Amino acid sequence: MKFFSQILHFTRLRVPNLGNMPLEDLKALNCEIAKLGRHQFNEIDLNEFLHHWIKGNNRKLRRLQLNGFKYAPEWDFLLLLQNGISY
After folding, report:
1. What angle do CA 5, 87, 47 make, to 5 degrees?
2. Which of 9, 12, 73, 84 has a CA positioned 20 to 30 A from the CA of residue 3?
3. What is the DSSP letter of 19?
4. 35, 14 in Cβ contact below 8 A?
């Protein structure tokens, strides 16, 4: 979406009601701090993003805060997936 591509490069980004941001736009974040609320991301999306971030992408991003999960994440599932991430 055009809206998301316009805001990806702010130094600090706070969007309380993010809506349906594509995962590819999340991967393209070029800001230092992002606080995103009411998003549609699930555990699979977050795992993919974490792999992307740990591989050295999103170099500027220092802090990401996601609020307003539609469904409570299965954090045990995320930890299980994260065990496969090598640093």
Report:
1. 45
2. 73
3. B
4. yes
Q: Read off the pLDDT of residues 48-78 as tens digits, 9 standing for 90 and up.
A: 999 999 899 999 999 999 998 777 766 665 5
Query: Does residue 18 lie in a domain region?
Result: yes
Q: pTM (2 decimals)?
A: 0.73
- The verdict on residue 31 lying in a domain is yes
Domain that holds residue 23: 2-82
Q: Does residue 39 lie in a domain region?
A: yes
Report the range of poorest mean pLDDT among 10-19, 35-44, 78-87.
Answer: 78-87
Q: How many domains does the chain divide into?
A: 1
**What is the DSSP code string of 41-74?**
--HHHHHHHHHHHHTT-STT--EEEEE--SS---
CA 1 to chain centre: 16
- Within-domain flag for 87: no
